[in-house]
Write a structure and sequence with these properties.
The chain is of the alpha/beta class. It contains 19 helices and 13 strands. Strands 1-6-5-2-3-4 form a 6-stranded mixed beta sheet, sandwiched between helices. A 5-stranded mixed beta sheet has the order 9-13-12-10-11, with no helix packed on it. The protein has a two-stranded antiparallel ribbon with strand order 7-8. A hairpin with a 2-residue loop joins strand 7 and strand 8. The longest helix is centred in the last third of the chain and has 30 residues.
Length: 426
C-alpha cells in the first residue's frame, strides 16, 4: 500500500487494541508524510515466539499504511540484556550464539514484512554494526553526559529492580537503546520507534537523546502488553513459550494454542493477530455470539495465524493432527503426522515397549501389554468389533507385521473411542 494521508494508522491501531500511548505529534506525523519507524528485537533465542508477534504486527501495520518499517535485531544490546520486565539479570550470550539467533530471526521476519516494495521496503539492521567501533570512553563522553543518574533511576525498568539489585551493565541498557534511536534518526531518517508499553522508558530515552544531542525530534508509539482475560501472561503454554519455529512448537501445537483461547480473549485476539478489516470482524463476532458452541472466532483466528506463520501446508498438518485428537483418525492420517505431533496428541496415553512385533497375534498382545485385562476380554472386545489397530478395525485372527509400525516405531491400539494405547518398538 502506498502512503496516503487519509489512512489514519493510530486510529487503526486503537480499534484493534494495539495502541497504548504515543509522544504528542506522532499521529500528525504519520498523517503528513511517509515515515520510517523501527522496532527492536532481542536475540536471546534462535526463534521469535508469539509474545514477539505484537511488535512484528506493529511493523506490518506501519508498512500497510505506506510507511517504511525497520526491524532492529540487537546484536549489541543482546550482549547487555534489557532489564525491562525482568526480575533478575539474564545470562549474557556469546557473539557466535547471537549471530546464529539473528540470522534465524531475520528469516522469520521475512514471512511478515515485504522487503521488495520500493520506497517503503522493510529493512533489517543490526545495532552491533555501529556499536562495534564505539569505545567505552567515547560512549560515556558523547552519550552519558546527556543524562543524569536521577533521570535514569526514575525509569520503571530500574525502579522495579532496586530491591533485588542490578548490574551497571543492565543499568546502562537504556542509554544503549537510546543511542540506537539517535543513530537511526541521524543515518536513516528514522523518526519513530515502536514497541510494547514496558519499553516506554527506553524509547523516550532515545527521543530525549535526539533532542539533546541532535537538536531534533523523535516520536514514539507503544502497544499495550497482551494478557489473557484471567490476567495471566499471554504467550505461554504448559510447555513454555509458543515459538514460531516449527521445530520448537509444531504447527499442530501452535494451532491448538489459539483454538484453546477463551471466547473473551478470541474476540480481542482476532483484532490484534489478524489483518481482517473491521466489518469482517464485527460480523464474525456477531455470528459467534449467536452460536458460541461453533467456536467461529477460535477457528478463524487459529486458521489465519497458523497459515501466516507456517503456511498452508503447516495449517493442513495441524488440521490433520487435530482431527486425530478428536477421534477422526485414519491409518493414512496417522502416518502423515510427525512423531512429535503423534506423541503430543496422545500425551498421557499408556504405552508399552515391545521388542518384536512381526507375527504377534492381537489377542496375545492385548493381554501381554496390559491394554486389555486378559485374553478372554480381548476376544470379547474383538468379537464386538470394538478394537482397532492404527484406526482400522481388526478381528482375533489378526497378526501384527512390521508394516503396521508408524515411522517404524509405534502402533496405536484403540477400544471404542476413548480407550487408547500405544505400542513402541524397542
Amino acid at each position: 500500500m502506498n502512503f496516503s494521508p487519509n489512512y489514519n494508522l493510530v486510529e487503526e491501531l486503537k480499534w484493534r487494541g494495539l495502541f497504548h500511548q504515543a509522544v504528542p505529534g506522532t499521529e500528525n506525523l504519520l498523517l503528513e508524510e511517509m515515515t520510517t519507524g523501527y522496532v527492536g528485537f532481542d536475540p536471546t533465542a534462535d526463534s521469535l515466539h508469539i509474545g514477539n508477534m505484537v511488535p512484528v504486527i506493529l511493523l506490518v501495520h506501519l508498512q500497510r499504511a505506506g510507511h517504511k518499517p525497520i526491524a532492529l535485531v540487537g546484536g549489541a544490546t543482546g550482549m547487555v540484556g534489557d532489564p525491562s520486565g525482568k526480575k533478575s539479570e539474564r545470562q549474557l550470550l556469546d557473539s557466535s550464539t547471537i549471530e546464529h539467533n539473528l540470522e534465524s530471526q531475520k528469516k522469520q521476519l521475512e514471512q511478515f514484512l515485504d522487503f521488495d516494495k520500493g520506497l517503503n521496503s522493510a529493512e533489517v539492521v543490526n545495532n552491533y554494526d555501529w556499536f562495534k567501533n564505539i569505545s567505552f570512553l567515547d560512549f560515556i563522553r558523547d552519550v552519558g553526559k546527556h543524562f543524569s543518574v536521577n533521570y535514569m533511576m526514575a525509569k520503571d525498568s530500574v525502579k522495579n529492580r532496586l530491591e533485588e539489585g542490578m548490574s551497571f551493565t543492565e543499568f546502562s541498557y537504556q542509554l544503549v537503546q537510546g543511542y540506537d534511536f539517535y543513530h537511526l534518526w541521524k543515518e536513516k531518517n528514522v523518526k519513530l520507534q515502536m514497541g510494547g508499553s514496558d519499553q516506554w522508558g527506553n524509547i523516550v530515552t532515545g527521543t530525549e537523546l535526539i533532542r539533546r544531542k541532535g537538536n531534533g525530534k523523535g516520536f514514539s508509539l507503544t502497544a499495550p502488553l497482551i494478557t489473557k482475560s484471567d490476567g495471566s501472561k499471554f504467550g505461554k503454554s504448559e510447555g513454555g513459550n509458543v515459538w514460531l519455529d516449527a521445530k520448537k512448537t509444531s504447527p499442530y501445537q501452535f494451532y491448538q494454542f489459539w483454538m484453546n483461547t477463551s471466547d473473551e480473549d478470541a474476540e480481542r485476539y482476532i483484532k490484534i493477530f489478524t489483518l481482517h478489516d473491521k466489518a469482517y470482524i464485527d460480523d464474525l463476532i456477531k455470528e459467534h455470539s449467536n452460536a458460541p458452541h461453533m467456536r467461529l472466532l477460535q477457528k478463524d483466528l487459529s486458521a489465519y495465524i497458523t497459515k501466516w506463520v507456517h503456511g498452508e501446508s503447516g495449517y493442513n498438518t495441524a488440521i490433520a493432527a487435530s482431527n486425530i485428537l478428536f477421534g477422526k483418525a485414519t491409518s493414512e492420517s496417522l502416518r502423515n503426522i510427525s512423531e512429535d505431533d503423534f506423541f503430543s496428541i496422545f500425551e498421557g496415553v499408556k504405552k508399552y515397549q515391545i521388542s518384536e512385533i512381526q507375527g504377534v497375534n492381537i489377542v496375545e498382545l492385548c493381554a501381554e501389554s496390559g491394554f486389555l485385562a486378559s485374553k478372554s476380554e480381548a476376544k470379547r472386545a474383538l468379537n464386538e468389533n470394538s478394537v482397532s489397530v492404527n484406526s482400522e478395525k481388526v478381528t482375533e485372527d489378526f497378526n501384527f507385521s512390521n508394516t503396521d509400525l508408524i515411522n517404524d516405531k509405534y502402533i496405536l491400539l484403540q477400544r471404542g473411542k476413548k480407550n487408547k494405547f500405544i505400542l513402541i518398538k524397542k
